Amino acid sequence: MAIGRAARRIAREPAVIESFGPTRAGAALDLLELTELAWHDCYGEVTPPDSVIEDILVVASGDLGELVSAARKAVEDFRDLHLNSEAIRSGLRRRPRTHL
């Protein structure tokens, strides 16, 4: 069954609020929606896989500027994004600033 963009936004909201805080979650969700549009243009799929969205959020670490960079990296080469997220998860790379 197909899930619409609005439903995906609602489903992602808790993780985005946790990462960016309630005041910046709307902007982060907007950017993830733009990422979906770019993903569709590049890959012909409606949305990136959940694992790519998770990698974007890990790499962004609550910083909207880092979110922009991570989203672009996801569309350009999601494998590089995944390597970056794994380095953060394993402690080999520091996380950027987090929300206040």
Structure write-up:
This protein has four helices and no strands. With 100 residues, it is an all-alpha fold. Helix 1 packs across helix 2, helix 2 crosses helix 4 and helix 3 crosses helix 4. The mean pLDDT is 92. The longest helix has 26 residues. The chain has one domain. Helix content is 72%, strand content 0%. The N and C termini lie far apart (38 Å).
Please mark out the parts with pLDDT under 50 across 5 or more consecutive residues, or reply none: none
Radius of gyration: 13 Å
Based on secondary structure, the structural category is mainly alpha
Globular, elongated, flat, extended or rod-shaped: what is the shape? globular
Distance between the termini: 38 Å
Number of helices: 4
What fraction of residues sit in β-strands? under 5%
How much is the average pLDDT? 92
Number of strands: 0
Helix content: over 70%
Largest sheet report:
none
Number of domains: 1
Sequence of secondary-structure elements: HHHH
